[in-house]
Design goal:
With 117 residues, this protein is mainly beta. It contains two helices and eleven strands. The chain has a six-stranded mixed beta sheet with strand order 2-3-5-7-10-11, with helices on one face. A five-stranded mixed beta sheet has the order 1-4-6-8-9, with no helix packed on it. It is globular.
């Protein structure tokens, strides 16, 4: 998936696609990063994306996705919907359909591992 395809899946409050210059996308590592708030992400069914984003965003994403986000975010997968909890700054959330809560809290340094795979 290239940056143009990613852009079609990220929306601002007014329903427009997020401008290309307002986010970065590492195609090889599948890492999306932005400092823009109040976004809607439609990556439903797409697994193993790393999202680094600001607060009050809504995410639809597949299993194995990792979220390094500020508070007040909502996440859902094909199977469940959750309000993403406040997470300590040294941790991130990872969707896991096999977990009782639907997610795991993992060390932030694990993100670096996944980004470099």
């Amino acid at each position: 998936m290239d940056k143009f395809e990613v852009q079609k899946r990220v929306f601002t409050q007014d329903g427009k696609n997020l401008d290309l210059e307002k986010f970065s996308w590492d195609e090889k590592a599948k890492v999306f990063e932005t400092n823009i708030s109040l976004l809607k992400f439609n990556f439903k069914g797409i697994k193993n994306i790393i999202f680094i984003a600001n607060n009050r965003s809504d995410f639809e994403a597949g299993d194995g996705c990792i979220f390094d986000v500020d508070c007040d975010c909502l996440g859902c997968t094909d199977e469940y919907s959750i309000e993403l909890p406040d997470i300590p700054t040294d941790k991130v959330l990872k969707f896991n359909k096999n977990s009782e809560l639907g997610y795991d809290i993992i060390d932030k340094n694990t993100v670096e591992y996944f980004k470099n795979k």
